[in-house]
Amino acid sequence: MNYNFQETPTLQTERLIIRDANLNDINSVFELRSSQEINKFVGTKRIESTKEAKNFIETCNALFQVKKRIFWLTEFNQKVIGSVVLHNINLDLNYAEIGYKLKPEYHQQGLMTEVLEKVIAFAEKSMKLKTLEAFTHKNNLASIALLKKLNFVLQTGRRCKTYDFNRIYKLDIK
Fold this sequence. Notes:
alpha+beta, 174 residues, 28% helix, Aminopeptidase, 8 strands, 8-stranded mixed β-sheet, 4 helices
């Protein structure tokens, strides 16, 4: 593995910066994780205060220190528009789950495709991961289409233990 978990890498695409979240981002994290619209297909509890947003960032940082999570914010034109995370990282099994959020006004512009392509490339080349899984709501058609576009495959024989409405999509990285 080339990546050493010393600091969260900043990734860039043609239009986006994918960067570490820090305590200056409390309001952006609050907006992303409290919005009913952004989280309508997410089972986890929405946060209700900037204190909870701060705690979330601190939790992400603590999990990063033990090599279990990398949480990034996505910037477009110097504005935070979304997030992406590799979590439940298991370096022994070369595995992680991937999750993402994007403000609705930025949907259907190919931005999340750019983000995921860059993060998947990082996971493959720098972390040497072999398997990524995404858990998505069965009715989140845009997310399902995105995952299929990126060659994730529905795991028909598996069910999410936490949320019955989630479906598991798997990407085997070569």
